[in-house]
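new request in #modeling-help
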Amino acid sequence: MYACLFAPDFSVQAACRMEPHTGRTLRQSLIVALDGPANMLRVVAANDAARTAGIQIGMTKLQAETSGVSLRKRSVANEDTAQGVLLDCGRVFSPCVESTCLGTVIIDLIGTEKLFGSPENTAGKIIRYAAMFGFELHVGIAANPETAMFAARGYSGVTVVPEGVEARWLAPLAIDILPVSPEMLDILDAWGIHTLRALAALPPIALTERLGQEGLQLQRLARGHTSRLLVPAESTGDVIEAYEFEDPVETLESLTFILNRLLQQACIRLVSRSLATNQFEVGLDLEARQLKTEQSTEHYQRAWKLPLPIQDGRVLFRLACLDLEKNTFSAPIKKITVRVTPVRPRSVQHGLFVPVSPETEQLEITLARIRGLVGSTDENGTPCVGSPAVLDSHRPDSFAVMPFSSQTKSGNALRATTSILALRVFRPALEASVETTQDRPHYVSIRQKRFRVLAASGPWCNSGQWWNASAWARDEWDLAVKTWEGIGYYRIYLDKIRKQWFVEGMFD
Amino acid sequence: MSAANLLRSQIEARLPSAFAVYRRPTQKTIPTGISQIDDLHGGVPVGALTEICGSSWASSGKTSVLVSLLANASQNHFCALVDASDVFDPTSADTTGMNLSRLLWVRCGKSQSRLKPLEQAFKVTDMLLQNGGFGLIVVDLGSIAERFVHNVPLSSWFRFSRVVEKQATALVFVEQQPHATSCAGFVLRMTTDPATFSGKLITKFNLKAEVMRTREKKPIQSASDFSLKTLWA
């Protein structure tokens, strides 16, 4: 059995998919899609309500406006995205999915009865699932792909054509439902053939003599006597959602509204495939004509890498919003694209002895907010937020900051602890002036304050990386200095390359 | 029934909690890993605000207590260190055996921001408390000038103390002087005595910890002397 997922008035549905209450809007409002040059816009698609109200394909924008319809601009990008979503809807129910044309997807249902039940049940599930993405579908199920497609296009709702009686179901449909050329349609019209019943009733040999193999093929289609294999559509792997605005938007509210919908739908698509994501991108295309400076780029791209796979669209949306709030764009935004990389969802084994940890999704948002507050990196490019890690280097104060995660396996190892005197590091090191007596520090000035050295331990010579430009060499001293608050123990060093004294830190 | 009891029963009928006495839950503690301090109070109280104070110019041992506390707590909890002046030394921490992957280190004041490091530290602490899940949150204000910390309104300390009271989190502030007054559940003052030299090497630091304040009754012994070895001793 094959099922055809057909979205009628696809241009209109693709344009309205991101709007709230899409289903109700499509049923109750008069909506048309316009296309063409800016001064020659014409109606290319209209929903049922608009057609009932007298809207015809090819009307000008002015004619359509007089009928009180809502106008949408047709967007090829939106239609491509909608077709991708429709394919994903099909993939939920079958691995073999064919993208027949825009708004039409055919899936192979053979062997899925035990999973989804009878064909009627399967069709109902397909319609409900597609409704989550803003589609109103007609579903046709038949023994061959073409009959399923004609049933979906010819009848509204769910149509199940039993095997062997295809011709009877297809009989009432108009002849223009077939993929027939205009010349052939004129000939059939001249013969008085207006329905598939009439075409199916013609004698095949006489029809072939007059119309050739094309005529015979049309009659086979009309009788439902065709058979072919589906051409499976290739899956790109990444889940991509995009939306092109009719008019470029300038406010964050308009942008985040659509962004939220895109991310939510991307996550629904992931969940339906039992997947999660640990990496996603948001791309914004700016209106090039309104770029304020020549240096400004027309495209803004931002990527996030998450420490753990996540399925919650709200978390992704919050992370993206926190970043967008920090940026100002040099031109209005005309298109937004979301690319989500699917990965296997995480599985967590809980245990009695596992420590309580911050909730992963909430923690990611908190960390993003903290980064927004204190900054992402310092002047050296080292992250300001994360877990410290000691580098394998002899250079003093060499460390890295790794992404913090509450689900690290390495973090569960217990280590024996000892208490030692800790160093309080000054970053960057404080400049100091040192007065020496017999090559030993006697007085030291730190932050414009002069202290007498009570005891000095050193010099401890240290150097490294002499083979490259970041060479360092220093003589370290540990000093006990008398301050007005008591005795302070400091580590100072003479930078032999810069010939300058510095205070590295205080033992505290 | 006396008039007072009658009045009380009538009020309690309308407002059941009118005469209820607020009782703080029994405090758990996180050991600092320094037995002399743990003997005084058992460690840092969970669900309370703690202040560890010490001088900024002279060595006092406050950072060593902080690192030891984090090393000890990181074995069983996820910890956060809000470093207002970016003075934390990962090498010292690694030597103590701290589980660095369980430590969230927030380095304040490293980027061009309209907020001062002190304001950043307080806002970050607020976010971490709201997030929850951390067993220990340490805010190091030890290198922030005293005049700035002194200007922090008492309401901020009070808010922190009430928020942390409902969580299984120990909130520790490292400062030069105590500021939270009655909002603090435990105040520890650190001072130092002259260090021990072995020839030219400083080998041992002699420290003194004094308990300034606890929520419960005063400890029998309020001060304790102890010493810490240096990394190379």
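bot summary: The longest strand of chain B covers residues 184-198.
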